[in-house]
Design goal:
Strand order of the largest sheet: 1-2
Structural class: mainly alpha
Number of helices: 13
Largest sheet: 2 strands, antiparallel
Strand content: under 5%
Order of helices and strands: HHHHEEHHHHHHHHH
Helix content: 55-70%
Shape: globular
């Protein structure tokens, strides 16, 4: 995108506009206004609107990484010097931005004191107040981490995600890893809201964005297949090794909810390895046709995310039900075509996702590509 905009001011305006669009759609889709796909109603109490979400995280990471990329265009050489490290030195300001994000996250995660905190759960019989005992620093568990504390202070506890993955842990429910009724002896934090796309964890995600754009820089500057693969695979392996060491030494556990440094290393390393695998299959061996559906989905990623991942299309189908809202085509297909045939809800759900979600939207995205229809921000 930035290569098509020669002037810095124009590029910055484009970045700001795209960031605002992502924030807008993020709040609409994940702020509580849309209840798709199961609930056909719309609307949100502004006292409980959720300010954070996946698109909001993408927006802020994109803004930081794109601004640094734009403002440092004239500060880096157009032709790299020989050597493995030349691409790192050429983009030193990008890595400096990632390092600053890393320092902010690590210092806050380990040094910030997390006091005891309380929350209120509202139910049919009234409201009940719970208190979580903390009084500690450097905790990476569900209850007393700095990530949650920052979000409670910045956004307010009523504006956080109300159904966090913590509630599916063994300490919370006997149905783990699935959701289910809470145990009678479940800790109070099992009922608490938590924001998995919060402020501090999004700052950590900036480092993920920095590593991702580095993979793109390799694609731009390095021309030989073998050298490109050497860059991606070597960095991917190093990141994976760092993540495994940090996790299994209990220094920093791999934790998506907290977007821990080990999680950044693990996902970025895995991305480098997987990307290298696809690169070999498609660009080196020329096996493009079997993976065209992924290319089509990527060309219309926003549309697929909104319609599929956020359930807007399923909600539209669910709106045409017979007698009661649960008696709809989506539920019928999932139950009778997948679950009943395989006599397993888990296997049926997996196959439903593969065929009724990924394959279906791959075909839809392919048709839209042939028609030249794209949802661009």
């Amino acid at each position: 995108m930035l290569q098509k905009i020669p002037k810095v001011k124009s590029a910055i305006r484009k970045i700001v506009l795209r960031t605002l669009k992502l924030l807008f759609w993020g709040i609409i889709l994940q702020g509580g206004y849309s209840h798709a796909p199961d609930d056909l109603s719309y609307g949100v109490n502004m006292k409980q609107i959720r300010w954070c979400g996946i698109l909001q995280r993408i927006a802020l990471v994109y803004f930081v990484v794109a601004i640094i990329e734009t403002l440092t265009t004239k500060l880096r050489p157009t032709v790299l010097n020989p050597g493995y490290l030349s691409i790192f030195t050429a983009y030193k300001w990008q890595w400096f931005g990632g390092f600053v994000a890393f320092v902010i996250y690590m210092v806050t995660a380990f040094a910030l004191y997390v006091p005891d905190w309380s929350f209120v759960v509202h139910h049919k019989l009234g409201a009940e107040k719970y208190t979580v005992k903390c009084g500690m620093r450097g905790h990476f568990g569900p209850a007393c981490n700095a990530v949650g504390y920052v979000d409670r202070q910045v956004w307010g506890i009523n504006h956080l995600y109300s159904q966090p993955v913590w509630s599916r842990l063994k300490a919370c429910t006997f149905s783990s890893p699935d959701s289910g009724p809470l145990r009678k002896d479940a800790p109070s934090w099992c009922r608490a809201p938590f924001e998995p796309e919060g402020l501090l964890s999004t700052i950590s995600a900036i480092l993920s964005g920095t590593i991702g754009i580095h993979y793109g820089h390799v694609l731009i500057h390095v021309k030989e297949h073998a050298e490109r693969l050497m860059h991606w695979i070597s960095m991917g392996l190093v990141l994976l090794i760092v993540a495994v060491i940090l996790h299994f030494t209990d220094a920093i556990p791999i934790n998506k909810q907290l977007y821990s440094f080990s999680y950044v290393c693990f996902t970025a390393g895995a991305a480098g390895i997987v990307f290298s695998g696809f690169y070999i299959l498609i660009d080196v061996w020329g096996l493009r046709t079997p993976f065209l559906f992924l290319e089509w989905i990527g060309m219309n990623a926003m549309l697929v995310f909104v319609m599929a991942a956020q359930g807007i299309f399923a909600a539209f189908i669910n709106g045409w039900y017979y007698k009661n809202p649960d008696n709809n085509l989506v539920n019928w297909i999932q139950q009778h075509v997948f679950n009943d045939v395989w006599k397993s809800e888990r296997v049926g759900t997996l196959l439903y996702v593969i065929f009724a979600e990924i394959t279906f939207w791959g075909v839809v995205a392919g048709v839209l590509h042939k028609l030249g229809i794209y949802w661009k921000l």
